[in-house]
Amino acid sequence: MRGIREHELNGIIEVNRKACKGCDSCKTFCPTSAITGKYGATHQINSEKCIFCGQCLVNCPFGAPRDTVDSLDNVISRLNDNRATVIAIIAPAVRVAIAEEFGLEPGTLVTEKLYGALKQAGFKVFDNNFSADQTIMEEGSELIAKIRHYMLGESSEHHLGALPQFTSCCPAWIRNVELNYPELIPNLSSAKSPLMMAGAVAKTYGASQIWAVQPETLYVVGVMPCTAKKFEVSRPEFTSAADYWQKQGGTEHYPDVDTVLTTRDLARLFRKLNIDFNKVSEFTDNNNPFAQYSGAGTIFGNTGGVMEAALRTAYFVITGQELAPLELTPIRGLKGIKEATLPLKDVKTGKDITLNIAVVHGIKENLKPIVDQVIAGKSPYHFIEVMNCPGGCINGGGQPINPMGTSWIDKYKAMLPWS
Amino acid sequence: MASYDYIEKTVKVSRREFLGVLGVGAAVLWTGAYVATDLIQDRTKYIKMRTASLYRDDFKATVRQSHNNSSLNKMYKSFAGEPLSPLSEELFHTKYIDRTKLGGMS
Amino acid sequence: MAHNEIETRVLKHSLPSRLFHWCLILGFLPAAITGFILWLKLGNETFINLAMRIHIVGAIIFTSAVIIYTVCCLNLVIAFMRRIFSWDSRDLGWILIGGGYPQKMFLGKKITVPPMGKINSGQKIFGICLLFSGLILMASGWILYAFIPVSPKLFIYWSNRIHLVFGIFMGLFVFVHIFLGIYNWGEFKTMFGNGTQPLDEAKDHNPVWVEHEIEPVQNTKSNTKVLVQ
User: Fold this and answer.
1) Is any Cβ of chain B less than 8 angstroms from the Cβ of C215?
2) Which residue ranges make up each domain of chain C?
3) Which residues in chain C have Cβ-Cβ distances shorter than 8 Å to A28?
4) Do A133 and B105 touch (CB under 8 A)?
5) Would you tell me which CATH number, out of the four given (3.40.190.10, 3.20.20.210, 3.40.950.10, 3.40.50.970), belongs to the domain A138-190+302-395?
6) Cα first-last separation, chain C
7) Is it true that A1-68 and A72-130+193-295 share their CATH fold?
8) How far is A239 from A234, CA to CA, in rounded Å?
9) Cα–Cα distance between C68 and C77 in angstroms, integer?
10) Those residues with Cβ within 8 angstroms of residue A138's Cβ, 6 or more apart along the chain or in another chain
């Protein structure tokens, strides 16, 4: 099948034919026009084009698109298996959304409760915010190397991609580039997404130095606000940890991250295990090195968050001083395309540079102008953050579905639905 | 041409009825407009609540920059070396594929 | 009313009312039929899509007719509303014997019923249902047509539910309406003809209306009658 490789998950989002009213609502949210079916008739999703972002699923008034990948039973059997160490990698956006599944106010921050509930379920916590920080170190260093090379004329020992650099955290965006804008691949940061870094760290450093277990006994579960992550972990190249151990005599094959649960899936898991989320005791997990994270890591879940976190570090590395104030308000908020410029004085050479950055989210509406500029070679930017979903990961396709709907930012509809 | 000997007496709309119709019409329009503006103002409410919560998590954090995450720095020190080191490249970086060139099942 | 009553006619449905009725037929019947096709998803994609387009065209005709009629013939709308909302003891009596219809249909005998105005008690009930269901159907339908991506999901979900329930209700309603319309053949001829009805037939069905709400046509009309005869 075009667009899908062997071993990659396929058809993650499908339309329930019984529930579909043919209202075309999903089409107005689908960034890749993967949904077919005429107005009034039952719709289908073309898996070759689908980037599995789940925006149709979150926004359908009739709940017709569904997430077909359910690994709950696998996870539970691993939790019950004494030989397995089950790791939960929890994304930033999960901690502000899962409370909704248990009747709490939307946006309630429940990090400690989540740690507690995961502990009660038998997971060891690996906070993805740790890896978000790591992503900033890798992706930020890559950006800084590009700045030093292309803007300050320094030679580079690394193989560097092109400027502007695109963020690579969002798996739907990555798949979108690979499917529709392959000419932008050199512009994508080569850094893995935080989840895949976390998987690689867990099964190498984590296994040997933190938990002291055999890496093949680790079962790593990503808990993500995202349906596209289910696709990402099935990409065949993500076996870095197994490759690493094979060089040291290991023989086993295993993926870096074994499976992904969405925020909704995790809530179902807690219910299935009879864990009352509201009564669970809080757990700070202070001694867990993977539960230590910075404020920069946690804002990854918001649109503009990766950019803000990266700039805090890039500013420090280039100028030698901490950015103050840390809040970059121009790239916060729900405006479709956000831009900012950041003047920097290089501490090494004393040269002045101006960093132009852009943040794009809700790519159905907002991506095209930015991408067209880059393809035409006329982009004024150096670093561009792209998140598929409107608002960023906090509004991802794996998040609790709010019955009043959440993500119709700047929506309109042609007056004639069939036009 | 129709032919008839009797016709219905002309119905006169009383002032009260006319005002009643106007009133009901205005009430329906006003309520509709009120509900619509309310809904439009609320449409990003839940996204904003989640967003604000993450920014609060950042604001109350003692460490607010990735390069100051001591636990992460320890990982680099004792394992991967530094960002973009050969081991970091191997474990933490990836390559992308051009999916337009994928044929059938490869 | 002294002369030959067989030849005496009364204008029961004025031209605007008959035109409005035609628009409702042209609007509602296609919309109702396609509505059931859409609900049950009968046929292939192209056919359902066609049904949807017809459904919307029907809705446009239906809605514009309602709006235009209300604006241009407000007095007729008011008269209709006065009639459907005025109830007294005669209506109770009428409903208790089902307007004499069961006896006529199943036992073949005609019984005396309480005297009715232009609209009998059964029609009053139907009228009230028509008024509210029609408005709800129109409102929910247009919400579903134009406001899906810009409305909260729960709102759309319930609009759809309401549209479906009232659509089915109105579909059955129209079925009964057509049946009774044809059963009362005189009424059928009046509505689809020139709107006139022999006075004695009107007297039989709508005695109160004939007594209080009609008046003789002035001057030239009697000549016309002779000519037509």
Assistant:
1) yes
2) 73-228
3) 149
4) no
5) 3.40.950.10
6) 18
7) no
8) 10
9) 11
10) A191, A192, A197, B83, B84, B88, B92, B93
Q: Which of A404, A411, A418 sits opposite C153 (nearest CB)?
A: A404
Hey, what are A331's tokens? 């790239």
Does residue C216 have a cis bond before it (omega within 30 degrees)? Answer: no
Query: d(Cα A329, Cα A341) in Å, to the nearest integer?
Result: 12
* CA distances, A136 to each of A25, A144, B72 (Å): 36, 11, 11
By the 8 A CB rule, do A224 and A260 touch? yes
The whole model's pTM is what?
A: 0.86
Best of C39, C148, C155, C157 to substitute, by most chain A Cβ atoms within 10 angstroms, is C148
How many angstroms separate the CA atoms of C41 and A42, rounded?
8
CATH 1.20.1050.40 holds for C73-228: no
Query: Rounded to an integer, what distance in angstroms lies between the CA atom of residue A291 and that of residue C152?
Result: 37
B38 CB neighbours in chain A (<8 A) are none
Domain A1-68 has CATH 3.30.70.20: yes
Under 8 Å between Cβ of A336 and A351 = no
Q: Judging by DSSP bridges, how do beta strands A259-262 and A218-224 pair with one another? A: parallel
Among all residues of chain B, which has the CA nearest to that of C15?
Answer: B2
User: What is the chain B residue with the closest CA to C74?
Assistant: B13
Strands A352-361 and A337-345: antiparallel
**Residue C129 CB neighbour total at 10 angstroms:** 15
Instruction: Note whether A361 contacts B: Cβ–Cβ < 8 A.
Output: no
B8 to chain A, closest Cα gap in Å: 43
What architecture does CATH give domain A72-130+193-295? 3-Layer(aba) Sandwich (3.40)
| Minimum distance, in Å, between the CA of residue A267 and any CA atom of chain C | 21
> Which pLDDT tens digits describe chain C residue by residue (229 residues)?
444 444 688 888 889 999 999 999 999 999 999 999 999 989 899 999 999 999 999 999 999 999 999 999 888 888 888 889 988 888 888 888 888 888 888 887 778 888 888 888 888 988 999 899 999 999 999 988 887 777 778 888 999 999 999 999 999 888 889 998 898 888 898 899 888 888 888 888 888 888 888 888 775 544 444 444 3
Cβ contact, residue pair A402, B46, below 8 Å = yes
Find chain C residues with C-beta within 8 A of B40's C-beta: 150
Residue of B nearest to C151 (CA): B39
Beta-bridged to residue A352, according to DSSP, are A345
Distances from the Cα of C189 to the Cαs of B83, C13, C183, C215, in angstroms?
Answer: 90, 11, 11, 22
